[in-house]
Amino acid sequence: MKKNILRYLIIIFTITLLVSCSSNKSEISKTEKEKIKETIDLVLSYDKGYDEKVSKHISEKNFYICNYVEFYSLYIGELELKEYNSEMLNISKDKDGLYKAALVLNMRAEALEVHEGEEEGSDEAIGENVPVEVILSLEKENYYIKSFTEYENLEKAKELSEMFR
């Protein structure tokens, strides 16, 4: 009788352990991936400044660092983002619930005011195959950008971050 009880306890313990280990696996659904990419694209390419729409997804300080419209306007003045597209290369979720996303961006922005006498092309900002890594959390049903890293090129990104390998 004691042997049977011991066997049942061992079986129950083993099943519980297997189920808990498999449920901790950080699988990210296709819907989650799409929402994360949508959030990142919104914040990086948003052209209306920091407002209520983006404040759900990023702090004001971080917005002015990683939003390409704001960033490039410091160099070429007021601008219009003519092209923006991104490709998600990798995404993961850690045990603390933070998401890491690795993307490659392509974009082109043109200054609204042309500066004569300037070097040709100075009124345009172009980014081709720009590798970025974004860390997000899920807060109040919205993905929230915690940090943003842009790498010099894809080779450097592969060297410095496992997300690009």
TrEMBL record:
It comes from the Bacteria. This is Lipoprotein.
